[in-house]
Write a structure and sequence with these properties.
The protein is α+β, with helices and mostly antiparallel strands. The chain has eight helices and twelve strands.
Length: 275
């Protein structure tokens, strides 16, 4: 009874209907026994292919990206002279999370989204051109997510020395121009949304660890390399930047509490630091 009920509820697939149609056409031109033989041959081939796929060894893993940091690493803010810190989480950090969403079928291809993207690029270019002026430390690669409601969201994590630096940039002409455009056009662009979150994290209240991982998040921060961090380039100057990543094999850098300076370690337990 249950089997008959299931069969009654089952709907034939498109391929099944196509196969039945072709079977009927073959019945018009070929002997019945030959049709049965062809069907059995196709079924055997399909079964053999499936068996071979199951017996295959799993594919070899792809090589790691060239910028992957093998081993254990942590991102720490270096001293102003560029030297490696001896204690973790010695400075405060401000995390600025900014996001854009689009519910349009073409996602980023609308004129409004393209214009918004240009404003964002201009803002990032502005702070990256003078990190010391704006207290800007770096940003993550974009994080992309899609919801069942067909909305696509782009999130970027950025890092700043303090809240005053972020606030100063919010009042800058570059940011003000983008904000004024948004306020003028928001009523015409209901398919686009923007958001931000700000976290002012005191020293001793943040940490991170990366194991066989590409630089990401705080690992993508960059610092001007001490007093010699500005060099001549053409008619202007260019900041020479340094990675905050140091090896975290043992001692202070080997544990969460150590990286937050919540436990004490001797100098011999800190281990070498590499930029």
């Amino acid at each position: 009874m249950q089997l008959s009920t299931r069969l009654a509820k089952a709907e034939p697939t498109t391929w099944l209907l196509i196969g039945a149609f072709l079977q009927c056409l073959l019945a018009l031109v070929l002997p019945f026994r030959l049709i049965i033989l062809l069907a059995a041959l196709l079924l055997a081939i399909r079964q053999g292919t499936s068996t071979l796929k199951k017996d295959k060894s799993p594919p070899s893993p792809l090589p790691l990206p060239s910028d992957t940091r093998k081993g254990r690493w942590t991102a720490q803010m270096p001293h102003k002279d560029g030297s490696v810190v001896q204690r973790g989480s010695e400075e405060e950090v401000v995390v600025f999370v900014v996001g854009v969403s689009s519910s349009h079928p073409t996602i980023r291809q609308t004129p409004a989204f393209k214009q918004l993207s240009q404003y964002f690029r201009g803002m990032w270019d502005e702070v990256e051109s003078d990190r010391q002026k704006w207290g800007y430390l770096g940003k993550s690669s974009p994080l992309v997510g899609a919801t069942p409601a067909a909305s696509t969201t782009f999130i970027t994590l950025s890092y700043w020395k303090n809240l005053a630096s972020l606030h100063d940039f919010a009042l800058s002409p570059t940011h003000r121009a983008g904000w004024d455009w948004w306020n003028r056009t928001i009523k015409d662009n209901g398919h686009i949304g923007i958001m931000h979150e700000v976290y002012a994290v005191p020293k001793g209240h943040w940490e991170n660890i990366y194991v066989n991982f590409r630089p990401f998040g705080m690992g993508q921060m960059q610092f001007v390399d001490g007093d010699a961090g500005v060099e001549e380039e053409g008619n202007g100057t260019k900041e020479r930047l340094k990675s905050p990543l140091i090896e975290a094999k043992r001692g202070r850098w080997g544990s969460m509490l150590g990286r937050m300076s919540r436990v004490n370690y001797g100098a011999q337990d800190i281990g070498p630091g590499k930029g």
